[in-house]
């Protein structure tokens, strides 16, 4: 039950961030995908099962807020959440640069799969917004890496 | 190496979740463009949160601005913007009616109908996959929104039409820049007419089915809706022709820049009157 509430909180936090980004500039939601942020962060913290569940929930909500095929983003986010949780347990991603690279590769892989699957489902007709979307992997990687790094940085400062 | 019990459980959960998504995707095949029950349910459940967060963030933003100062100027500005919004809607329609040389009585009757059915709303979200495809507004079935109603921005420029899913208080608007959008348009002052479709990659539009031999349709000309599509009322300003390439075999390539600005979309008007 606790996991359910945590996933629900992650979804609501993503919608909140999504709403703020829309207010600032609509194209920002393509660059900083709040649903991807939530899924990767939670998967690294809680593991692959939680990552897959969060991926399903966040992906389906993103699908509900878009005109594409319902379930398309849910599928790719589920895979991404699972892989993020599973691989992060097997390799050391503690240093900032390694975590950045890890999340960058995950996010880029998910974007490639999402685009490819979208084209397949729409028989090649679908297009996925402006070129801004190409900034999504580095932006997500930077945001997730900072989310892990900043609390540690504050702790270190307080100690010193 | 054999998998541990925990790993097997993880893969089982992953398999089940992936199967769920494949089922969700598959059940949409017979529905085509129509939205499935699952999608409507998800939209109905989560769009109120979007509305709530958007209102909260907007409220916080407004409060912050008010605190900075110029409260009176801001209030005055809001009032003037509101007036401008209604005047722009009225003006756009009136201009088109005059251009079409219709009788004054008919124009007045149409304007009355317009005013009666105008539903003003606010954009609370954009399409999460492609910002030029659709937006979500804070008006739904409760406010009288049904599918296929024209939607304009605060200046009276066409932005799109309402589509499913429409929940009690929220609805989706397909933008004219969406790839699947189609609007019957004509060049202002009478001239080439065709179908305007969107290009969601660039956020622009393209005027289709103008014969390469047709001399009409030049750069800088303004496009208006014709009303022939049965969705958009005639005379709404849509965009301006940006470039024309007559090099095609049968048809011209006419690029159109829509008048509405995606980054400036806030208040919108849903036109509750449908063409006959």
What structural keywords apply?
heterodimer, A: 160 residues, mainly alpha, B: alpha+beta, 6-stranded antiparallel β-barrel, 4 helices
Poorly predicted runs of 5 or more residues of chain B? none
SS element count, helices of chain A: 7
Question: Mean pLDDT of chain A, as a whole number?
Answer: 88
* Net shape of chain B: globular
Largest sheet of chain B: 6 strands, antiparallel, barrel
Quick recap of the structure?
The complex is a heterodimer of chains A (160) and B (276). Chain A is mainly alpha-helical and 160 residues long.
Write up this protein:
The complex is a heterodimer of chains A (160) and B (276). Chain A has helices at 2-24, 28-31, 34-46, 48-64, 72-90, 96-121, 136-159. By secondary structure, chain A is an all-alpha fold. In chain A, helix 1 (2-24) runs antiparallel to helix 3 (34-46), helix 5 packs antiparallel against helix 6 (96-121) and helix 6 (96-121) packs antiparallel against helix 7. Chain A is globular and about 55 Å long. The mean pLDDT of chain A is 88. Chain B contains four helices and twelve strands; from the N terminus they run ααααββββββββββββ. Chain B has helices at 5-26, 37-68, 71-99, 104-117; strands at residues 118-126, 134-137, 150-153, 158-166, 171-175, 182-187, 193-199, 204-208, 222-225, 237-245, 253-258, 267-271. Chain B has a six-stranded antiparallel barrel with strand order 1-2-5-4-3-12. Chain B has a six-stranded antiparallel barrel with strand order 6-7-8-11-10-9. In chain B, helix 3 packs across helix 4 (104-117). Chain B is globular, with a radius of gyration of 22 Å. Chain B starts with a helix and ends in a 5-residue tail after the last strand. The interface between A and B is large, with 51 and 53 residues.
